[in-house]
Specification:
Number of helices: 5
Shape: globular
Radius of gyration: 17 Å
Number of strands: 11
Strand order of the largest sheet: 3-4-2-1-5-6-7-11-8
Structural class: alpha/beta
Length: about 220
């Protein structure tokens, strides 16, 4: 099974290395050269995209996550079966999927007819992500999702919880995405407006991915174009 790995945190981010570890080193990495979190589904169409081949199975792309998926599926990788995006440092829950470059990479895959899975790790401050744990949980989730049938225009969004060290293994819960807005606010200094949204205080309607993840389980939602 040929796997394409990408992200929006950049090719040198620890999350994509944890994802590669989760698939036992069997992925072809096609990822942005730099950090592009929050770039959504932006694509490059009016200028060339530089691609640096770092190894037989790793390409650094001077473009967006959606660009990476496009290049991987049409130019760089033969007969791909899945596009996996992540592991993102930060949650991509509910309406975040419309902002997220991580999710855009697998949405682009769905557009091009290839199934995809986006994986993110919510950050519950002041805790720090343990990437070895995140990799282990991701292996569990992928083992579950690879066995499920795929449907055209559908893709998966996975959010890992942030638990205290030594906590029991989290359950995998299939749920619906929240459609409630993020808590948006700004600090004003003169003519400058600084975004100040308190992510952990967002709506937690029971049964939604936000509530499931914040409650300590792995939230899995099935999204469609």
């Amino acid at each position: 099974m040929t796997l394409i790995l990408t992200n929006d945190d950049g090719i040198d981010a620890p999350g994509i290395q944890a994802l590669q570890q989760a698939v036992k080193g069997k992925g072809v990495i096609v990822a942005p050269q730099t950090h592009l979190s929050g770039c959504s589904h932006q694509v490059t169409t009016h200028q060339p995209i530089h691609v640096q081949q770092r190894s037989e199975f790793a390409y650094a792309v001077a473009g967006t996550p959606a660009d990476c998926t496009r290049l991987a599926l049409t130019q760089l990788v033969q007969n791909p079966h899945w596009v996996l995006s992540g592991i993102n440092a930060g949650g991509n829950l509910g309406v975040d999927v419309h902002i997220s470059g991580t999710v855009a990479a697998v949405r682009e895959a769905a557009i091009l007819g290839i199934p995809g899975i986006a994986i993110s790790h919510w950050i519950k401050r002041p805790l720090v992500i343990d990437w070895q744990v995140a990799s282990r949980w991701t292996t569990r989730v992928l083992g579950e999702l690879f066995q499920r049938p795929t449907h055209p225009g559908m893709f998966w969004n996975v959010n890992l919880p942030h638990l205290e060290p030594g906590s029991p293994e989290p359950d995998i819960v299939f749920c619906k995405p929240s459609i409630q807005p993020l808590p948006v606010n700004y600090v004003v200094e003169g003519d400058h407006y600084y975004y100040k949204g308190e992510y952990a205080k967002r709506d937690r309607a029971p049964g939604t991915d936000v509530d499931i993840c914040f409650s300590g389980s792995i939230a899995v939602t099935l999204l469609s174009l």
